[in-house]
Automatic annotation (TrEMBL):
Binds 2 magnesium or manganese ions per subunit. PANTHER family: D-ALANINE--D-ALANINE LIGASE, D-ALANINE--D-ALANINE LIGASE B. This is D-alanine--D-alanine ligase. GO terms for molecular function: ATP binding; D-alanine-D-alanine ligase activity; metal ion binding. It comes from Salmonella enterica (Salmonella choleraesuis). Residues 100-294 form the ATP-grasp domain.
Length: 301
């Protein structure tokens, strides 16, 4: 029986969501017949890996250290196969600026952005409306929309980004997402935040009634195909393994599709988009995690 160690929790702002993902994946792996262990990742991880000696690590971590290539590098060194993407892919995909630059170089529409620090932010004339978001955090943590010139800027205390943040032009439109699983795009989901939320923010993602999901999305064939093709292109360009989820915005004024970001460690909670899309495609959650374990590997240097 294959021994699988689920890595979850960790150090990031997304640790609570990672714990939910980890518990769900561990339960499904047990149902699939794997000898399953779960740990909340801390700085004793190397010692625990030696003690448990797993055949595969299931990476259920979100955010820095778990999603940016750090834990992947450790597992490469220790020779332990792991699910999801490797070091280089994870590092690039975690950086929204770098990922969008790659998309732009390959003809995929992206929203104009600028990398700014707090001093620049406080002194510059802002191009309203705009979005402020972290360069390398997920779950829409610390993401803000400023719609009018009289909107008050963030205080220095509210500037929770490491050093720099990404400022994007705000596009009013429809939020769309595509899962790529085993190198095939699954479908397009439209995410409709509840009236309590301005956009698909952290609360909308994880509250049970935070948003509605329409799948397949009721959009034009052209828009649908563009999302599917661009999601697969980004998955392949970055060298993603197993699974990824790409997010888009459909501009309601022009009809253009804009790529926003790619997630190499998408959530696997009861309200998450990936399990929902795979279930629509006829793949159960147990099958999903089992297939990811089957594809587990280390980077070949």
């Amino acid at each position: 029986m294959k021994k699988v160690l689920v890595l979850c929790g960790g150090f990031s702002k997304e640790r609570d969501i990672s714990m939910v993902t980890g518990r769900a994946c561990a339960a499904a792996l047990k149902d699939a017949g794997y000898d399953t262990y779960t740990i909340d990742v801390d700085r004793t991880l190397p010692e625990k890996l030696r003690q448990i000696n797993p055949d595969v690590c299931f990476n259920a971590l979100h955010g820095p250290y778990g999603e940016d290539g750090s834990v992947q590098g450790l597992l490469n060194i220790m020779g332990i196969p792991y699910t999801h993407s490797g070091v280089g892919t994870s590092s690039i995909a975690m950086d929204k600026i770098k990922t969008k630059a790659i998309a732009r170089q390959h003809g995929i529409h992206v929203v104009e952005d600028q990398l700014i620090d707090y001093a620049t932010y406080k002194s510059m004339e802002m191009p309203f409306p705009y979005v402020l978001k972290p360069v390398n955090d997920g779950s829409s943590i610390a993401t803000y929309i400023f719609r009018t010139p009289d909107a008050e800027k963030l205080s220095e205390q509210a500037w929770t980004y490491n050093t720099h943040a990404m400022m994007e032009r705000y596009i009013k439109g429809r939020e769309l997402t595509v899962t790529v699983f085993m190198n095939k795009p699954v479908t397009v989901t439209e995410i409709i935040p509840s009236t309590d939320h301005q956009f698909y923010n952290f609360q909308a993602k994880y509250d049970t009634d935070g948003s509605l999901h329409s799948l397949p999305a009721d959009i034009s064939d052209k828009a649908f195909n563009t999302c599917m093709e661009n999601a697969l292109t980004m998955h392949e360009l970055l060298g993603c393994r197993g699974i990824s989820r790409s997010d888009f915005i459909l501009d309601e004024n022009t009809g253009n599709i804009f790529f926003l970001e790619i997630n190499t460690q998408p959530g696997m909670t009861p309200t998450s988009l990936v399990p929902e899309q795979l279930a629509w495609a006829g793949i159960s959650f147990t099958q999903l995690v089992s297939l990811l374990v089957d594809e587990a590997t280390i980077d070949v240097l």
